[in-house]
């Protein structure tokens, strides 16, 4: 472990500042409040951190009023944990209660409001039953719900120094874990054992969890980047790719590495070289004044020297933080202006050969001088195990 | 590892049968099809299994028509993996595409339909942007959407033999992992290190992942069951509880264990004994003819001998399978009839002492003879480490 002095949690000032920024933006666009119900948003404004979100049974709500602290409307099972947060107003019910899973508490809270924001745009989900949402709208006929996606995502995109420290910490753990891969990945080892060992190593290096690990290994390259592993042994001539999202104190890394097993084919070496240089161009371009589209363009131009198909991943990187993937997207459609302290992945990919593909990924923070690496830069040439 | 001969995936006949059962129910209630968009449901009908669901960026859709195979409407990045499924009709787009993330493909597909089911009831979420949902409804003004929650959850509640095998396999891995806890949990070890070692052990025992681990350790008992660990060392006189959801081939276990560190206080021993007996009563009552409410009642009666507050967890167990928690709920509100091959948790809990609580949990499958244990039964008395 590289950074043992880092502490968990945030001082209350962090949550005060986040809430104040939200309230300033709310005032600009005329919102009386914002109703939030998704894990990352609840955690962002309250510090409430639990794996219990994996159970879909119970909805959780936080309301950001025009002024003052956020208000929690949550199942009783979460009261004890939420009481350790900076919030004062915590309203609970004995969930699950299919007839009234927080709806009457929400109705009471929102009855006096006129215009309330909810997140209903790109990359959002309604983390409550649609039927309950319809009942809430019916119970509040005079209330106008407006989309607050851009407002909330805009706040979350730009990280505080404390957030960057946490992401840098888990990126360092990820880099150390990748550095150990040659110790347990070699010809003859089943791919699912490689995955298992990778996760065990990440935990040993200090990750709280290793929720995300995808990858592949096959002759000369791989055809798909989201699969679980099978039991096929690594074979001389394979290209192995592992892409991981590890987590520490709620914050993620998200990057990948490629290796050749025994021998690197020329086509794979060439693809690797193009992607390494595309990533490098992205790192250099990751400075205020440029946009996500600019990052997409500089990487795309280099990728196009080998593959001008546009690929099937739809973007060449994204935001990173409380979520494995968050806004913005490095894509032609995303003209988000880069600003200092955005934490981003650069994730160029290309197709080559007979249906093969390759992906590179690094994690950076935007600075005036371009991207500062949070992950340890991948080797210049495709490493051979 | 106890059961190494078990194989991953399902024969196509399993998906054919699941789809046929859905289509029979759809005909009964007059649905032309069901539109699904959540991980467990997509996996249930297609076998599509990927951790990529952790990225909230892209929506995924599967449509169950009145007859014939399901139809996938998914991001291009998933095409290669979905092509390995039993589906023939896979429609893709280059996601993310904020202006049209599958909406025009869905509109084309649903234009000829009259009444389509979606899941909008208890324990469901809308895993697509609410704004896109509103656009889809606006594009299909003649289409009636009906709630299909009960239909889909009803199918998923009753497991096939192949599903039960997978759950039994991961329960065995969980039991072996819990059996190792005394090797690494003892006075002086920080709680977060116990969590880390538990996860590493679960992977070593054969789990694909250890996504869910919550617990606590404090003097005489614990006050909360959903928290992440802190760095406080285990201390003589603590009660340690670990509650885990491990996963193998997409299926979960979900059970917990309690230990006393060094010495067991009388109050903790008494709470443990009551919960052990409550669980036993639940196991015996888990037979066809009884309801979830009956399970709740038999456990509640024993719990009430020590604590008649009703607790704050809201239920005393739930369904288990592709999700860590799924329908039904052992609660007064749930009159679901138990049938053979339902896989359930029994999870009695109680409050005692000064704000302390205790939870027990076992995993069972419903048989004519009562619950058959999938987890290795907890010790009769609170074990002391």
UniProtKB/TrEMBL annotation, chains A, B:
**Could you tell me which residue ranges the Peptidase M24 domain spans?**
165-367
Instruction: Look up the domain of life of the source.
Output: Bacteria
InterPro entries associated with the record:
Creatin/AminoP/Spt16_N, Creatinase/aminopeptidase-like, Creatinase_N, Pept_M24, Peptidase_M24B
According to the entry, every stretch annotated as the Creatinase N-terminal domain falls at: 18-158
The record's listing under PANTHER family reads:
AMINOPEPTIDASE, XAA-PRO AMINOPEPTIDASE P-RELATED
Under which name does UniProt file this protein? Xaa-Pro peptidase family protein
Q: What organism, scientifically named, is this protein from?
A: Octadecabacter dasysiphoniae
Provide the taxonomic classification: Bacteria, Pseudomonadati, Pseudomonadota, Alphaproteobacteria, Rhodobacterales
